[in-house]
From TrEMBL:
Residues 75-156 form the GHMP kinase N-terminal domain. GO terms for biological process: isopentenyl diphosphate biosynthetic process, mevalonate pathway. Pfam families: GHMP_kinases_C, GHMP_kinases_N. It comes from the Bacteria. PANTHER family: MEVALONATE KINASE. It comes from Actinomyces viscosus. This is Mevalonate kinase. The lineage of its organism: Bacteria, Bacillati, Actinomycetota, Actinomycetes, Actinomycetales. Gene3D superfamilies: 3.30.230.10, GHMP kinase, C-terminal domain.
Amino acid sequence: MDRHSSIREGHGQTWAKAILLGEHSVVYGHPAVAVPLQDLRMRATASPTSGPSVLSSLDYSGPLEQAGARFASVARAFEVAREFSGRLDQSFEITTVSDFPHERGLGSSAAAAGAIIRAVLDACGRQAGPDDLFALTQMAEQIAHGKPSGLDAAATCSPCPIRFQGGQMRPLSQRIENAFLIIADSGVHGSTREAVGGLRQRYESDPDNIGPRISRLGTLTQRAITALDRADAPALGAAMDEAHTVLAELSLSLPVLDVLTEAARGAGALGAKLTGGGLGGCVIALVTGEPAAHRVRAALEQAGAAATWRHRMRLSEVDE
């Protein structure tokens, strides 16, 4: 790249993700399946400016260096993107606009970092391959999560579901036609750190009780992978239902999450469960067909969901 080439307004886009099955058990060596939610987008714009760099994101608008700890991963994403582009001396106005809320287990920190990185690279005319983009996003995620698995960084830009196990990721086939996930926000901020730490303590103090349940979650995840590949929507829904029951037995659900899952099933969902760390956050429900999607979404709103979204699951064919 010509170091003196002109800088333009750059744009970047990523999306939300939901853990379909395997949250928590993935920490103990079992697989997890993450689904990219391409309908819920995170967009970023990077406009060159001559003054200090400015950020407009969520409820903050002001100098980037004064944005505080809440935006530390965003600031890191901006820094690594400029460094990769060879433009550390260039200031930008950075704006993010999201279709989905933060701190709900939908991957907002990785999505924001990835979108900003892409916007800055676009502004600088710098090309980057998938491996570079993943590595840059992981640098920002280390600020947000300490030792991120990489699942969010991969899923928030993946075109298809991802299987994650032992630090390794691979794409999965999704052959269920006309399938939708209805996502419902409980309105309660979940703490993944608290949920994971609490389960670890319970496991260490009572392994004979907790261990088999964690293993059951792993088995259900394998069942979900097969159901996606075989286009077996009822089997996937049944695995989701049982996974929620096990997560509740592990003290990772809340009454509001149980109410929402029951409302979804009562309206015809094939399966429903909490997604992510639990103790708040979101519920996901599987349906097939537009009428069922509309009916389940309405039921979740009537049951008290703070917000709902509909995501059509894209078909994907992966060579094994």
